[in-house]
Design a protein that fits this description.
The complex is a heterotrimer of chains A (247), B (216) and C (285). Chain A has ten helices and ten strands. Chain A is of the alpha/beta class. Chain A has a six-stranded mixed sheet with strand order 6-7-8-3-9-10, with helices on both faces. In chain A, strands 2-1-4-5 form a four-stranded antiparallel sheet, with helices on one face. The two termini of chain A are 25 Å apart. Chain B starts with a helix and ends with a helix. Chain C folds into two domains: 125 residues, 3-Layer(aba) Sandwich (D-Maltodextrin-Binding Protein, domain 2), CATH 3.40.190.10; 110 residues, D-Maltodextrin-Binding Protein, domain 2, CATH 3.40.190. In chain C, helix 8 links the parallel strand 5 and strand 6. The longest helix of chain C has 23 residues. Chain C is globular, with a radius of gyration of 23 Å. Classes of the chains: A alpha/beta (247), B mainly alpha (216), C alpha/beta (285). At the B-C interface, helix 1, helix 4 and helix 9 of B face helix 1, helix 2, strand 2 and helix 9 of C.
Chain lengths: 247, 216, 285
């Protein structure tokens, strides 16, 4: 498996406080890495750093074989695509929302429209293409937001609790569709979630954060049966046996 | 009543206030955007200054600009006193804070995470700003209309730095004051209605654009 | 780059184009500072003179003849003299003898030339509640004070206002705090309108009264009194004191105003429209 990203002793400091610490992590091409942990554990900070929106203050990070310092800021950011908790659609048609990122990359309109319609279709919302973005439901909007990121065909897809604002049925529906699409496309992605169950379902590996540090990476079994430290064990303990069985 | 002189006065009013509004947009839009999106120590202070500037009485601005441009003033050599340029200068000082303050408010009313999302889709800084402007187009157009409204209707500054000189710096508002002072209420009312109609028409066009969501 | 539908893109271009063309034409209408420097004359004068319409004819004539641009700033005599005392005007046309003399004594002006004069008159409602018709000005003022009849003053430090105050003073009356004495703070025409609306008395120059007569229902009650003469002087601002003034232009304008052709014009100005000339010429050199 080829490595896309490597992190060595990566630290991010803000106002003299260490807000992220990653001793060692490799992210492989085509894998889905789930990121879990209690609130304030540094998950979002991790995501923003991967997105190129936060500069590491120490340590080493390579992306596609090149050191982070060797990447120009805009070039790096155009390798990734970000999906947040809220769909954050722009006040225009659904189709135009999809075209935004493609426009940034100067893709000619006819090709852009073709790609956009294809992705809207894959997420089951093609029929909404001409609708104003504010007129669709929450679940539909999050699908559009996902399509908007996928259409960019990023080397790395980053999702920050993308289902948190949805009700349970919509949520289940969507992450099942998402899982299928991720597999189909071998899309490398990192997604943050509060739900261990979701993490287990979608993720090839799970990374557990706690106290602003990456504590452990592994499969669900590894984490549950051999927790790296007390904090990880505590975190895992909060989830009942039944949740795990539903894998 | 609607003779060549009225036409000339009307055209001059529109040229002066139009130019002043355009310049205020060129100054106020970027500055207001900068204040909205940045974070630095003196930011709050600058913002308060801008908001105070929004409420400056035109006659006060006129007085200070006149003091600068009078022959006896520091910029007297420029010979700008009692010219349309002087009125434009004063009107820019009046309208730029309005445009800037309302631009800042317009951008701050957007979801703060929108910036992050746009950057996360690969926007450069300028592309991000452009998209934010598009998102805030309704309140930004309102800012433009407010800036224009502030200057097309002001008298104090036009009077002080323009001097209300016939064929040179007489605009609709100062002409109305003159005719009222002379007791020609008929003429004054006629000019007043003309001013209102023109202002309404301009705002109608801008509002139409605003509401149709025309991408400018 | 930005995929705008054709129609909306055209509309935006048209708007932007109009704005730019408009502004550019406004810019080209603005004289460049350098060329404006020696070809601009700033004339500070009184609202009453401006309202009479005399300058609307004389100034363009002078501009055509001389090629200069005259900027006529019509404010109260007080403000006109103030502008002159700071070198912010090149030539003054005022009617406040006391202040003018002080102005000259302070060295702000280098020449003071009487140009023309008109009469002040006391006007009021035809009902004349204080019964002042036909009396002399001082008697009239006494009667008004006694009857507590409403009197509107300019209250704006203008030439007219100063003369009005001087007359009250000479009559030995202090009207300032009296309830029947109102100050408009505005120009002559506006003050006449107020007097007309309130059925009150006021002091006005004959020229403004004649010009605005149609809009009021006031009648002339006291006139011809020698105390009521109102002389307009030309004052040239001192170029030694204020090097920035355009002295050559000021001299040219003064020459123009005192030329026989201009004097002849002033002598008959108003005759056709109001039945009598608005100004009398000063019988001087």
């Amino acid at each position: 498996m080829k490595t896309l990203i490597e992190l060595h002793d990566l630290t991010v400091r803000r106002a003299n406080q260490k807000v992220l610490s990653i001793p060692l992590l490799s992210i492989y091409e085509g894998e889905v890495l789930a990121v879990v942990g209690p609130n304030g554990a540094g998950k979002s900070t991790f995501l923003l750093t991967l997105a190129g929106l936060l500069r590491p203050t120490g340590g080493k990070m390579t992306f596609a074989g090149r050191h982070l310092e060797q990447w120009k800021d805009l070039d790096y950011r155009r390798q990734i695509a970000l999906v947040l908790q809220e769909p954050l659609l722009l006040d225009r048609s659904v189709l135009d929302n999809l075209l935004v990122g493609l426009r940034f990359r100067k893709l000619p309109r006819p090709q852009a429209v073709e790609r956009a319609m294809d992705w809207l279709n894959r997420f089951g919302v093609a029929h909404l293409a001409q609708r104003p973005a504010h007129s669709i439901s929450g679940g539909e909007a999050q699908r559009v937001s996902l399509a908007r990121a996928f259409v960019l065909e990023p080397r790395l897809l980053l999702l920050d609790e993308p289902f948190a604002a949805l009700d349970p049925p919509t949520r289940t529906d969507l992450y099942q569709d998402l899982s299928a699409i991720l597999r189909q496309n071998h899309q490398t992605s990192v997604f943050v979630t509060h739900h261990l169950r979701e993490a287990a379902f979608l993720g090839d590996r799970i990374a557990v954060f706690s106290e602003a540090t990456l504590k452990q990476v592994g499969t669900l079994e590894q984490i549950c049966q051999h927790p790296a430290d007390v904090a990880v064990a505590e975190f895992v303990r909060h989830f009942s046996e039944e949740e795990f069985e539903l894998k | 009543m609607f003779d060549r002189e009225v036409f000339q006065i009307t055209l001059l009013s529109l040229q002066i206030s139009g130019l002043a509004t355009l310049l205020s947009l060129l100054i106020g839009l970027p500055f207001g955007t900068f204040l909205a999106l940045s974070n630095f120590r003196g930011r709050s202070f600058l913002l308060s200054l801008v908001n105070t500037g929004m409420g400056l009485p035109p006659v006060v601005v006129g007085l200070f600009v006149a003091m600068l441009l009078w022959r006896s003033g520091p910029l007297g050599k420029l010979n700008l006193i009692y010219t349309p340029t002087a009125i434009v200068i004063a009107q820019v000082i009046i309208a730029a804070p309005v445009v800037s303050g309302l631009t800042t408010a317009a951008l701050q009313s957007l979801d703060p995470r929108l910036r992050l999302q746009l950057l996360g889709l690969g926007a450069s800084r300028w592309q991000m700003i452009w998209e934010l402007w598009r998102e805030a187009r309704l309140p930004l157009l309102a800012a433009l209309m407010a800036g224009f409204g502030a200057v097309i209707s002001e008298i104090g500054a036009s009077m002080m730095v323009g001097g209300n000189i016939r064929f040179q710096t007489r605009v609709l508002t100062t002409a109305i004051v003159l005719e009222t002072g002379k007791g020609n209420f008929g003429m004054a009312s006629g000019l007043a209605i003309l001013l209102l109609v023109i202002t309404f028409l301009i705002n109608w066009v801008l509002t139409h654009l605003q509401q149709k969501g025309v991408r400018i | 780059m930005i995929p705008l539908p054709q129609r909306q893109r055209s509309l935006s271009f048209i708007l932007a184009f109009c704005l730019v063309i408009n502004s550019l034409s406004a810019c080209s209408a603005l004289p460049s500072p350098a060329s404006a420097e020696r070809s601009t004359l700033i004339l500070a004068t009184t609202t009453s003179l401006q309202d009479s319409g005399l300058l609307d004819i004389l100034v363009p004539r002078f501009e055509a003849q001389s090629g200069l641009t005259v900027k006529t700033i019509a404010v109260g005599s007080g403000q006109a003299l103030k502008l002159g005392s700071e070198g912010n005007a090149d030539i003054l046309l005022t009617h406040d003898p006391e202040e003018e003399i002080a102005f000259m004594q302070n060295g702000y002006g280098v020449e003071r030339i009487p140009l023309m004069a008109n009469q002040f008159i006391l006007v009021g409602p035809s009902s004349d509640p204080a019964q002042v018709k036909g009396t002399s000005i001082y008697v009239a003022l006494h009667k008004i004070a006694k009857a507590q009849a409403t009197f509107i003053s300019r209250g704006d430090q203008s030439g007219t206002h100063k003369i009005e105050k001087a007359l009250w003073a000479k009559a030995g009356i202090q009207p300032a705090q009296e309830p029947w004495y109102l100050e408009s703070g505005q120009g002559m025409a506006a003050t006449l309108t107020i007097a007309s609306e309130k059925g009150a008395y006021t002091l006005t120059d004959r020229a403004t009264f004649l010009v605005t007569r149609a809009q009021q229902n006031l009648v002339i009650l006291v006139e011809g009194d020698p105390e009521l003469l109102n002389v307009y002087h030309i004052i040239l601002v001192n170029p030694q004191r204020f090097p920035q003034v355009n002295f050559t232009a000021a001299k040219a304008f003064a020459r123009f105003l005192t030329s026989p052709q201009t004097k002849a014009f002033i002598r008959q100005f108003g005759q056709a429209e109001y039945g009598e000339p608005l100004f009398m010429l000063n019988n001087g050199p």
